[in-house]
Amino acid sequence: MQRTLTLFFILVLLTQQAFAQSTGRIEGRIQSERGEGIAGISVGLEGTSYGSTTDDEGKFLIRNIPAGSYTLVASGIGYTLQKQSLEVTGGKAAFVNVDLATSAHSLGEIQVTAHRSGDYLQRTATTATKMEAPIKSVPQSVQVVSRRALDQLQVLRLEDAMRNVSGVSMETGFGGRSDIFQIRGFRTDMQSVFKNGFRNTVRTYRESANIQQIEVMKGPASVLYGVSDPGGMVNISTKKPTAHTFQDIQFTTNNFGLVRPAIDLGGAFNERKTLKYRLNAAYERADSYRDFVKTKRFFVAPALTYDFSDRTSLTVETEFLNHEQPSDRGIFSVNGQIAPVSRSRVVIEPSNTGEFKNRLAQYNLQHKFSEALSFRHAFNYNYATETRDVVEQTTVLKDGSFRINRQHQDQDTYDRNIATQNELYANFNTGALVEHKAVGGIEVSRSVFDIWVKRAPYDVFDILNPQYNTKPKDYSLLKYAQDYQDRVDVLGFYLQDFITINQRLKVLLGGRYDFWKQEKEDRLKNETTEQNNKAFNPRLGVLYEVYGPVSVYANFSKGFQPGIGQTLEGEAFKPITSVQYEGGTKIGLLNDRVNLTAAYFDITRQNVVVPHPTQSGASVQLGEVQSKGIETDITGEVLPGLNVIATYTYTDARVTKDALSGDDPKRTVGRRFRGVGYNNSSLWTTYELQNGFLKGLGIGGGFTYVEDRPVDDANSFMLPGYTRYDATMFYNNKRFHAALNVKNLTNVKYYEGSQSVTVIMPGAPTTVQGTVGVRF
């Protein structure tokens, strides 16, 4: 029997050898004009059934091809079709690299479909222009955190990624239950976090499992996106369906009881690779360094893409998120002294609960009429709920003790958002030296926000001698404090032209006109009020390539936010406006493997609503605030395997005008922004072995430095600065990947951020987090 099996295997091997000698294979890589591997590109031999699709690194392999002459055809939506002649020799491999040029743009997807997940440096982005454009050519500061950086940082929450973007500082986020940042000094709340180009209003932490990359555009974004915070916007690009089949299963844990399995699956349902899918899912259960604060979440995000033809494609994405976590507003201070307690001490009750649900559905339909003209129609629906039953702090007792009043609050919130974007893209020339890439669009959206809040005084809590579970929550004492519905309708028209003159001069010119309408139904007062705002917001940017990799740029842009309320005369407030002046340089170092961006910015926010100087309880639009400073970002591969992300920011953000006279003790002019230190910096660097038996093994680390910053708007006292060190060790090959990260390596005691003197969040102690994964 053994002899028979041996002869059988020899016969099979001889047959395979003979077949291999008569056939060959083609190996290659499809890359963009800037050398980036492009995933999902169809590659085939003209007139035959032989073909393949590129993987995440742009690589492909076609096997068992009879010897002969062939024409290789590479095509993908948003790219110009390329053909290349080649010879296939029996028993040998033909190697070929093909450069694909973009056909004017990638149909303005505001999403990432063709970036290598293995690169720290992402050379193109869509957020700033609504079309895929090289970042170094855009006359505005744009930073990108790539998927590879997210993996090596082991990012589970957006804040862990945003530490590596200049000009960004942390917020406490609605009691530690949402993603809130400060960009260039200004608070960037839920209205300025986007997902695939749509406003992404949620009531809890956004899930990181299906994030492909994070793009941060600095300065007002109203020129393309309407209502925006002055400091900038964050756009999350999600993972998209792929033509090549893969499965990635991983498990993450840490020293605070984290249990987190996750999957990432992709592939095609048919042989022609026209129907593709992607599925990301995660389950999470964890304790934390804060007493009584436990989390539990379930997330699933299926996505489908159907290519009707090489000109038309439809992508549909959905997300389902359930999250449980009690809100935690940290600790408090008394007379400028933060309560001297451990980082685990809380002011909340063990019985506090918080339940959050988020549902999202998006589709993106793209059609290319010709190489010069294309159309995009996209739709977004987002539904978020929040149910909280909490006991939390309110006001400190005035006797100098570390005691604080607490209240019992029962809250329900419902947030619904629907929006559609319709955009036409054109690529044309005027004369021999002027190239235009233009986009015009219409956005229509409606959001409906309902909230019911009941409150009642609860007790007095001594944080130095805490007593929990001393009394039950009496729901009969609760009284309505808020009960209203906001309905907001927005209609926006925008037009932009990205002009290239003689290849070296770039001009970005655009504007948007918005009609904003709000109806507020106050159910407690049984009254409905209406407010209307109109705003035109232009942008002008100029970039000039001085020589080689060095460019200089400048831009001017305006933004707006609705002015909520009315004057004493009963007139509605005007929009709150912001104006940015920015200038800087962009330099490609080491043959463009490393990008350096240095920028100076000056942002002034006007028509700020402030208290009336003489009428108690009234407001006027006389306020003005200003933030100015410099930023530097360095990102890329310094040497093969040696990657770096380094940032530095100097920010001077303060009140420049209020409604009070110069000798009024309540005057706020000169006060600095809460939570914004003058100097902040960060560094993250990793080195991965490129050859040998241990190829794929890497180590790395870095730090985050935050200077002293005001604890509140009144500048009552300064939160102390800190330097936090992190480290990592990882291994990655085709089938297996693992990482071990240590966050806050030296266990420094620091404070993450604050909302007031009574809401101060201690930072986490040393956290050891590990992930192991297998790919199939």
Automatic annotation (TrEMBL):
<keyword id="KW-0732">Signal</keyword>
<keyword id="KW-0406">Ion transport</keyword>
<dbReference type="InterPro" id="IPR010105">
    <property type="entry name" value="TonB_sidphr_rcpt"/>
</dbReference>
<dbReference type="InterPro" id="IPR037066">
    <property type="entry name" value="Plug_dom_sf"/>
</dbReference>
<keyword id="KW-0813">Transport</keyword>
<keyword id="KW-0410">Iron transport</keyword>
<keyword id="KW-1134">Transmembrane beta strand</keyword>
<dbReference type="InterPro" id="IPR039426">
    <property type="entry name" value="TonB-dep_rcpt-like"/>
</dbReference>
<feature type="domain" description="TonB-dependent receptor plug">
    <location>
        <begin position="135"/>
        <end position="232"/>
    </location>
</feature>
<feature type="signal peptide">
    <location>
        <begin position="1"/>
        <end position="20"/>
    </location>
</feature>
<keyword id="KW-0798">TonB box</keyword>
<dbReference type="InterPro" id="IPR036942">
    <property type="entry name" value="Beta-barrel_TonB_sf"/>
</dbReference>
<keyword id="KW-0675">Receptor</keyword>
<dbReference type="GO" id="GO:0015344">
    <property type="term" value="F:siderophore uptake transmembrane transporter activity"/>
</dbReference>
<comment type="similarity">
    <text>Belongs to the TonB-dependent receptor family.</text>
</comment>
<keyword id="KW-0812">Transmembrane</keyword>
<protein>
    <submittedName>
        <fullName>Iron complex outermembrane recepter protein</fullName>
    </submittedName>
</protein>
<dbReference type="InterPro" id="IPR000531">
    <property type="entry name" value="Beta-barrel_TonB"/>
</dbReference>
<keyword id="KW-0998">Cell outer membrane</keyword>
<dbReference type="GO" id="GO:0009279">
    <property type="term" value="C:cell outer membrane"/>
</dbReference>
<keyword id="KW-0472">Membrane</keyword>
<dbReference type="InterPro" id="IPR012910">
    <property type="entry name" value="Plug_dom"/>
</dbReference>
<dbReference type="GO" id="GO:0015891">
    <property type="term" value="P:siderophore transport"/>
</dbReference>
<dbReference type="Pfam" id="PF13715">
    <property type="entry name" value="CarbopepD_reg_2"/>
</dbReference>
<dbReference type="Pfam" id="PF00593">
    <property type="entry name" value="TonB_dep_Rec_b-barrel"/>
</dbReference>
<dbReference type="GO" id="GO:0038023">
    <property type="term" value="F:signaling receptor activity"/>
</dbReference>
<dbReference type="Pfam" id="PF07715">
    <property type="entry name" value="Plug"/>
</dbReference>
<feature type="domain" description="TonB-dependent receptor-like beta-barrel">
    <location>
        <begin position="307"/>
        <end position="745"/>
    </location>
</feature>
<dbReference type="GO" id="GO:0030246">
    <property type="term" value="F:carbohydrate binding"/>
</dbReference>
<dbReference type="InterPro" id="IPR013784">
    <property type="entry name" value="Carb-bd-like_fold"/>
</dbReference>
<keyword id="KW-0408">Iron</keyword>
